[in-house]
Amino acid sequence: MTTPIDASARPICVAALYRFASLAQFEQLREPLKRLCDDQGIKGTLLLASEGINGTIAGSRAGIDRVLDHIRSWPDCADLDVKFSSAATMPFHRMKVRLKQEIVTLGQPGIDPAANAGTYVDPQDWNALIDDPDTIVIDTRNDYEVSIGTFAGSINPMTGTFRDFPEWFARERERLLGSERPPRVAMFCTGGIRCEKASAFLKKEGLEDVFHLKGGILAYLETVPEEESRWQGECFVFDQRVAVGHALSDGTHELCFACRRPVSPSDKLSPMYEAGVSCAACHSERDDDRRASYRERHRQEIRAAEQGRAHVGAVLAATGRDDVD
């Protein structure tokens, strides 16, 4: 059971949301949405495209509810997917509503998840699906996310961003799907948006028996008891928690401020790890001047924290990126 959150200790409501919907006049939705968020003191990033909306916002619960009610009034957005968490302090500095070509970038024309996505699978039914030996299970997340946890027996495409997924599938199609009878494919991601779009991509490629985990890994970890779980490790999340475990308990990973990759307790033992400066994964990607700059930034962040004030470089939330949930 998830431990109740002390609202007085973590008073900021954080809402991660998405919805694939046909928003033909999405440009006209931007200003009223931005104005409402500003009026309610809401901060964060929302992406708008003709295919729908995606993003994360934070503020008071009443203000968040006003914004969600507004979005739900749009065409085909009544079933907006929303996941709530909380924070002790505001994780964003400003409110941004961006117009995009896609709300999660796959880079493939003609993909319409609102009309042609695969079949949703509820978390309670996921084990039976992936336990079937005739099911191919694909993790649609990026490699650094997969590295800290995934479902047992799933395939890691080793992608750097979601837009790399179609290229990986093109290379591996014959090996994965070369049998006479098309296989059953089950896909998953953190919150549901990437695997939903990937399922529409596979259907456009001619596959019909395509499934995706409703609500993503987070819904599974929240609802499936640990003793019945097929999940191994922790789940990387794009907010101040960094990673979560079963029942959405706090994970053990922290974030490398240089490269935004997750760092485990054992990773911190590497001689290439320096808090706020580098980790083993990114040490070779930066020169001494860049590391010196990060070191000074980290010193300023520590000083700001000691003085009880926020530092502009200290924000952990990583929403607004178009290759994540």
UniProtKB/TrEMBL annotation:
PANTHER family: RHODANESE-LIKE DOMAIN-CONTAINING PROTEIN 7-RELATED, THIOSULFATE SULFURTRANSFERASE/RHODANESE-LIKE DOMAIN-CONTAINING PROTEIN 2. It is an enzyme of class 1 (oxidoreductase). Belongs to the TrhO family. Keywords: Oxidoreductase, tRNA processing. The keyword Coiled coil does not apply. InterPro entries: Rhodanese-like_dom (IPR001763), Rhodanese-like_dom_sf (IPR036873), TrhO (IPR020936), TRHO_N (IPR040503). Residues 131-229 form the Rhodanese domain. NCBIfam families: PRK00142.1-4 (NF001136). It holds the Pfam family UPF0176_N. It catalyses: uridine(34) in tRNA + AH2 + O2 = 5-hydroxyuridine(34) in tRNA + A + H2O. This is tRNA uridine(34) hydroxylase.
